[in-house]
Amino acid sequence: MELFEKTILITGASTGIGKELALRLAAQNNRLILLSRRLELLNQIKDDAGNKNQQIDVFLCDVSDHEQVKTVFKSILDKHKTIDISILNSGVSFRNSIEDFDASKAKKTFDINVMGVIYCIEQLLPMYMKEGRGIITGVSSLADARGFAKSGFYCASKAALSIYLESLRSELKPYGVKVITIKPGFVKTPLTDKNEFKMPMLMSVNKAVDIIIAGLTKEKTIIQFPFLISAVIKFVKLIPNNLFDYISINHIKITGKKD
Fold this sequence. Notes:
Elements: E1 7-11, H1 16-26, E2 31-36, H2 39-48, E3 56-60, H3 66-80, E4 85-88, H4 103-131, E5 135-139, H5 152-172, E6 178-184, H6 190-193, H7 205-218, E7 222-225, H8 227-238, H9 241-255
Parallel strand pairs: 1-2, 1-4, 2-3, 4-5, 5-6, 6-7
Helix pairs in contact: 1-7, 3-4, 4-5
């Protein structure tokens, strides 16, 4: 599939992977629908794409607000009628530990990372099922593999999202609608800039988007990267719980931090 002259929706489009995808896809003459909680940043993307690009529509939308999602998507579908590819990219991450446990961070993480995707899919499904075509893409993470220390809320939310997308893929296959799961490792974005721990094989957002666009073009079921981290994660998923716990505990002892 060529990503050219398509109608493409992107949530979480104001920064990071979403922003770079928007700029890259705009350069390929696609019609873009960009959603974010920060409208001024979306308008800046229009300017950066060239002369307040008329092929880019922007919408203020907090995907964790169910009623707002309904209202915004009604406006989108009334205007555009159809969407070739929906890239559901909104996400947040908070480091958490038992010493400063905060359930409100868990709620916000799940509201955006899981329910935010589900709210959008709820609005998209009737169109896709009626047309018997289209692609729904959800941005999960390689962190969906295990419960890594101090990242429990984030890991759990991404695990929930990955499993849900897998289920959705099976259900939509008879309708001719494809579901793609994107699982990045560490990518240098405002989301990861706040991490205080070492991030192995940290990738530039440009390289990450190269891989994502290549995967979308090939309509791969799962787009995961970088390769080496993906391979390590497959091994980590297989090791016994006791060994995983031992490694985690000793990592804390060696670093002197509960990372």
